[in-house]
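seq:
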Amino acid sequence: MNKKLLLPLVLIPLLTVLLVAVLWWQPEPRQLSGHTLEVEERPQGGPFTLHGKTGTASLKDFRGQVVALYFGYTWCPDICPTGLAALSAAFNALSPEQQRQVQGIFVSVDPARDDIPRLEQYTAYFHPRLMGLTGDLAVLRETAGRYGAAFRREQTEDPNYAVDHSADLYLIDRQGALRETIAHGAPPEEILRALRRLLEE
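struct:
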């Protein structure tokens, strides 16, 4: 067989397989640490009441401010520190007056280990405009689900267990409505632009 004809004949089946794969491929559900987490397709947001260093705290307590909401846990080895560092950098780029109009909330989904003193110390490390809240697991699941977040504790007896969790950032406007969801890994500049949009309304 002519060698010039052989290459196209070999490529045709490969291209066909590739085309079929592209046409049939669908995005997988969100996975972390090898597990699938069920998340709300269209998060609606809404009110919540959790516990922090000053007692109970509700979303309505922050009316008039822009709220940046993040779900995670203090023992998280990389995802939470990365996300909170980006949020902190965005906060620092705001003017002092703008910073006073923004409240960051870190919701721990690991209440068994994240008590209030630990949460206070952890959030203070990243930024003074970030506060830590947590609550009962049932309340945490309901709140996370309302915002399109999800979490699940690793099934092990090891006290150093991991908690699989989604890692988006949720921005809530001055009236308490969920306005934007920013994917994990977004640069501080993207978070900053979104915060400024809400602050200018």
